[in-house]
Amino acid sequence: MNCELRITDYESRITDPQSPVTNPQSLRYRITFATRRTLAYVSVLELGKVWERSLRRAGMPLKYSQGYNPRPRLHFAAPLPVGCGSDADLLDVWLEASVDPEAMLAALADAVPPDLSVVDARTVPQDEAALSEQLVAAEYRVWLRDVAAADVQSAVTHFLNSDTLALAKRGRKYRGKTYDLRPLVQELHLEDAPAPWTGLWMRVGTRPGATGRPDEVLKALDLNDAPRRCTRTRLVLAS
Amino acid sequence: MTNTRSPIAWEAIEALLHRVQKPGRYVGGEVNAIRKSWETTGAHICLAFPDIYDLGMSNFALAIFYELLNVRPDVLVERTYLPAPDMIAQMRQAAIPLYTLESYRPVSTFDILAISTAYEQLYTNSLELLDLAGIPVRAADRDAKHPLIVGGGHGTFNPEPIADFFDVFVIGEAEEVFPELINMWQAHRHLPREGQLRALLDAPGLYIPRFYQASGESGAVIPIDPAAPARILKRLLPTLPPTPIRQLVPNVEVTHNRAVVEIQRGCTRGCRFCQAGAITRPVRERPAAEIVESVAAILDATGYEEVALLSLSSADHSEIKPLLEALLDRFQGRHLSISLPSLRIESFSVDLADMLSQGRRSGFTFAPEAGSDALRRRINKDIATEDLLAVATEVFARGWRTLKLYFMLGLPGEIDEDIEAIIDLAHRVRRLGLDIGGRKTEIHVSVSTFVPKPHTTFQWAALADRDTVERRQGLLRERLRGRGLRLSWNQYDGTRLEALLARGDRRLNAVVEAAWRNGARFDAWDEWRSLEAWERAFAETGFDVDAALYRPRAADEPLPWDHLHSGVEKRFFLRDYRRSQAGELLDDCRDQCHACGILVNYPGMWTAEWECPEQGVGSRK
């Protein structure tokens, strides 16, 4: 599936497009967080709800949108694919009152689910561009089991030597449509991993409308059935 | 493979998750999940809901016992649900047994496995659950090294179709008897299974099927052990127990993803088809002040944005309006949505919904159940068509654009004219909607097929036959068409199965097991149910379905569930059945006691939380 569309779907649900981006009443905070194990298996919509509830349990004064269906304003940099954890993902939240970032960190530490951890919290300028607009690339570590490293290496070599790689778009409305995965994969190579895993490392582009996903890369490598542990290790923002 | 007594390695579970839909169902990790030390707890209890996580996490009974039992430092409580078919296949292929979501321990290593028997379509799933856990499905094939298998929920008011698979059924409310059961089991855990169960005969409200047998054609159940009581009276709490506070918060989407407070248990309305209303008597109300405090504590503990106020008839709570006012006042500005299920058809209900919706107008739901005034009198649903139309007018006038109407088809005494009345009513409501609300107004008519349930006034009635039901459904389909009208109905095959399991006797155990062995499971799911597995089971066991379903029972005939007593007397239901046939109504019993039997069967238990008049028969509160 095309990643960018999923971001749009999510944002249209949790934010009110009419609400001014620079509301002087609200304050913008950026949270860096990590997810693992159980929290790697939630969708982006579900992770949004996990965050809303965590922020409420932590007593954060969430800023809500206007309208019939007010929702807290939360912006992820990029959706995490189902089955993928993260070492350092980014989330912007808007609050109605000022909160000391250190106090926010402490309150959230007790409020988040077991496999979510909060790495950092800081304020950001109201007028800074949306995280999704700043994002240019994402890096993933994928550990695979029940595969031979040599087979993975030859699949990777074949992949990198291809000029184009057509994959079916996911989702009913794209039935029969394909997209080219190859240009989205900027780097792909094997890396060390503890036994019994075989490690893969990749860096994929995240241009609007064209975001690479690690499970799509595995599909292209014909490793779709291999048990895996996937972690997004870094989000790369345009500096 | 892992050692069968230690937790399953995360890596073994993880290896399956990329192959299944919605893997977050199988990993746990919820906020408020409780993990205790296995070694320092004396009793290990697994609570199971035998359908998928999405439904099981929405089941309030599990929430009650998860919190109630976990309070005890000597007791460890964990949860399991039946995985969806794709995950079941993966687990079987990888030889991973069913595990709990807290510690990933195999379910078979727990001391007590409590399985919800909330409704009949869970029965084959219970066998699937036991088998996936590596536990023999028949009680006779198990011994003290297997978990004690306990059933509880509304289905236990006729558990005979699954009596061979469970060791114990809890009849009625389990908040007191479950802890008693744990204590008694702990005191006798060294005994063989037979001895453990014999010790449990001392606890009122437990039904242990192995000490009974079914006799003759009627399926009536009698004790074969002198220590076993001939009749088991349901357990009842004098007042509602504290509502669960630290409620589990799922990380993935589930059916009812919200906080719940039970505001009232039982119902005084006396609808003659309703089993829940009869078996949960008497009505006990939770005081409004306690509800408000509970909601505050739950929101702090969970971060939920929605709370459901649970009851069988919300508007009947005597403090409902001050309660809603207090909640709106207390949580103003916190963006809390409050949902109020089961509203009666009256303008007071529209007032209440109006208070809660704050500008948003989603659907409004009413359940007239029958189309004509005459048939509504027979089922004791006292609402006149003209009043219903007046309430519908108000619903549209206040801005709702979708009205759902629930009906039942195949009710005792129903004639074709009653179906005409449903059609007529739906069209009149639609015209009202178009006139007041405009072209976007939608009327959803949902018609389910009536199943005569045990422990109700209609327990003697036969199930309506297929030809009648399908012909009447055809009438509805033909005439309820057009702009702004939507109709949904149940397939008769599913209804027939539900009726068979609801009304069956002990002979059905062989059928249930054969059906499950043929692949029947998820009987409530259109996409997973296998009617073919059931048909083969009927053929293999020589079971006569028609004889079981289409014969009205005689008044003096023993019924397969007579040994279980809801506190409401059989002779009360019989008098009420005669009233139904005569088209007579019976008033709400909070106004006047009709001697259903609750007050005499629970002497000395009355409290001010009860809606029963204290003085009993004929008196007023």
Task: Provide an overview of this structure.
The complex is a heterodimer of chains A (239) and B (621). Chain A has 239 residues and is an alpha+beta fold. Chain A has two domains: 3-129, Pseudouridine synthase I, catalytic domain, N-terminal subdomain (Alpha-Beta Plaits, 2-Layer Sandwich), CATH 3.30.70; 134-237, Alpha-Beta Plaits, CATH 3.30.70. Chain A is built from six helices and eleven strands. In chain A, the strands form two sheets. In chain A, strands 1, 2, 3, 4, 5, 8, 9, 10 and 11 form a nine-stranded mixed beta sheet that branches. A two-stranded antiparallel ribbon of chain A has the order 6-7. In chain A, a hairpin with a 2-residue loop joins β9 and β10 (210-211). Chain B has 621 residues and is α/β, with parallel strands linked by helices. Chain B has three domains: 10-228, Response regulator (Rossmann fold), CATH 3.40.50; 258-360 and 587-621, Transcription Regulator spoIIAA (2-Layer Sandwich); 361-507 and 543-567, 2-Layer Sandwich (Transcription Regulator spoIIAA), CATH 3.30.750.200. In chain B, the strands form six sheets. Chain B has a six-stranded mixed beta sheet. Chain B has a four-stranded parallel beta sheet with strand order 15-16-17-18, covered by helices on one side. In chain B, β16 (402-409), α14 (416-437) and β17 (442-449) form a beta-alpha-beta unit. In chain B, α9 runs parallel beside α10 (320-330) and α14 packs parallel to α15. Chain B starts with 9 loop residues before the first helix and ends in a 20-residue tail after the last helix. The A-B interface holds A 37-39, 41-43, 45-46, 49-50, 52-57, 64, 68-70, 82-83, 111, 113-115, 145-146, 215, 225, 227-229 and B 10-11, 14-19, 23-24, 27-31, 33, 249, 251-253, 257, 299-305, 335, 359-360.
